[in-house]
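Re: [help] complex structure
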Amino acid sequence: MSVRDFFIRLSKIDRKYIYLVILIGLIIPLIFPPHFPQKMSPQVKRVFEYIDTLPKGSYVILSADYDPSVAPEVHPMYKAVVKHCILRGVIPIGMTLGVQGAGLALDAFTEAEKVLGARRDTDYVFLGYQAGGAVVILGLGEDIKSVYKTDYFGTKTTDIYALKPVKNYRDIALVISFSGSAIPATWAVYAYTKYGVKVAAAVTGVSAGDFYPYIQAGQFIGMLAGMKAAAEYEDAVNRILKEKGIGKFSTSAIRMMDANSIGQLLIILFIIIGNIGYFLSRRRK
Amino acid sequence: MRPLLEKKIPLALVFIIGIIMTLQYFVPHPISQTIYDNSLMWDRAIASMAYIMAIVSFLRFHSRRLKDKNYAPYSLVAILSFAAMVLIGFIGGTGSDSLFQKMYDNMMVPLQATTFSLLAFYMSSAAYRAFRIRGIEATVLMITAFIIIFGTTTIGNYVPKMNEIVEWIMAVPNLASKRGIMIGVGLGVVATSIKIILGIERNWVGG
Amino acid sequence: MILKTILFILFLSPPRVFSPDGTGKKLTIVLDIPDAIRPQITTLNLVRECSDGKIDTLDILPFLKAYTDNSLSHKKDYRYKILAYSNGNLIFESEWSEYTRPTAKWFDKDKLPLFIAMMLFTIIMIYYIAQARANKPLYLRPIAGLEAVNEAIGRATEMGRPIIYINGLTGISDIATIAALNILSHVTKRAGQFETRIVVPCYDPVVYTIAREIVKEAYTTIGRPDLFNPDDVYFATDSQFGYAAHVAARMVREQSATNFFMGYYFAESLILSETGASTGAIQVAGTDSVAQLPFFVVTCDYTLIGEELYAASAYLSREPLLTGTIKAQDLAKLLLVAVIVLLSILSLFKVNITLGLF
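Output below.
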């Protein structure tokens, strides 16, 4: 069989073999992670560097506005940002506008306690869920402790040590909305436009396209979009952990992205092979 | 009598209720809100009756298939699963700690996730088959797909300007075409609604 | 302290109350509390007295400058008084406001531009319908997907295999589903003329009941009520991936010759269309779901994009009344594009005119 015939046959290969190759291509990196070197994309870099250069004792609101259906993409981002803040001495204030986000956000703070020894109400604050959507966002601009009279655990916010210097958005360096829907746009409209607080978005890959106009308009300082951004951020936080001699790395997003990347590269390879075969078969005719 | 019941009365009902509900949107008066709330209740009541018919259809469809050797095993599983979940739900309740919920969480959710994961494989075979350089448009489609697929991998970050190109494609031509389609869809929705309310479109009632 | 007391007394004005909208259920109370006093307030109460004598105390956020009271009645009058506390001590008590009744209006003025646009569009539609009725030929550009419907049905007839028709995964309240059902009627009539079997697995129970009647009526219209098989139009399941699995399995087992995907779809679209493609079926899709269009374009032979789905019924029937509405849609789109272009050009010269319409 000549090379030409080989490629022509390959371009008409049965689906079964494509699925088999994809299956192998996805399983192997999950079992034997290749640890592709991660390089930060510009949008992720903007958010990372912003938090990285904040003075110690700054406050960042992390709003977990997502649910379990988008957790594989967004939850690793939330965990990574929480750890980043605590490692840099920035105090993350966790909250959520959706009921299901509370459990997920709590999971991230619990992990930070285990890995970094973070102390509740000193190194981080978790306010939990508050109903009201835009009303809550507006209320935080006036008085956070009036909107959240108690935190998630029932402690009065006026008694929380870490919250004492905080009144409203003027004391907040950044708000990041983690979501699988259009909630980050609500934060941009109400928090940034009315109160001028810096806002960033952390969203799924599918919905990222809808938020580029907000970045172009300067309403978001940056955006974490999809699994790739989660892997990049996770990798950057792991490097900080390594610097500080803490060996408990998180690799969930990195491993998934490795598998994802190999899958996508295989698709590109199939497309190239398919086109070579297609051209050769046309030339033969 | 049949044309009256099957065509004229439904068309008249749709016209009257369509006009009322259209005007209701512009009228903030509490009477308008009451009409809206009542229409939602009617909607739920009709949906409940439709569910009964749907379940009868489901059971009839699968019970007839039990006689066919090719389909019998699958239809048997469908009927038994249905019966089991109904009984478990009625006997043990459907609360968060119930057996019903546990079966849903441990069987249904993984099955849904498994079917969802088929997308990864189907996407690869669809891309393999579809992205061929057949003409100018197909070539542009393929090149764009290449850039986006490659740009969203980890390795894409190492190619100079790749992220900026991907961002530009997503933020400009992609978003522009999406918005264009949505404008057209919006007009299509309004036109179809008006056609149905005014009785111009009658296929739903048999032509 | 005395100065503060004088200030408190001076600023003890009753709260201003007005009706924010015409629903007859809300009143907005403006809390004119001087900023100097606000930091001392730890609890802010609003006392509401109804004209029937009922008194309620509402606990509101201290920093609010206005509060909207909901769930009122347009047949009663209400008045309000502000009570401000600092660590349990009453420091501020305003006078009672005037009795105010929530206004119930018969037209929402904020929606006037929308109403005008709707009426304009309806007038344009009626004009073109009248034109079409007067037998003026209206040109419609050919749409490949709709031209191919006959070809697709013919293929199923030749091969002796069924057509699978899917109405999408949303309920009857979604216009895309209604458009899909309209096309179902046409396809059933054409398929019935060739005695080709059409299978319609339904996702939504209400859609199932309507699809059943449409198919039955379509066969009756062409004089072949005997062709209707109730087991061919059935309710499959209302679980998204359960439905996808069922339909995919049906396509593979029955080796359908033609598949129609009309309506609104979610993530299962690729599972359905790729499975259909793997069986070698000819596939025609039509959806207004922007996210799923790329998958259908890649896997189906023909795709109706967005509004083409809504135009399909007019194309297939060529009824003057329906073709007239397509012209109206096109004119409305042209007007909209002209407005967008004009406003974009003006904004380049820093002239921002929206006339309060947008």
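Residues 138-318 of chain C form a domain with the Rossmann fold fold (CATH 3.40.50.1220).
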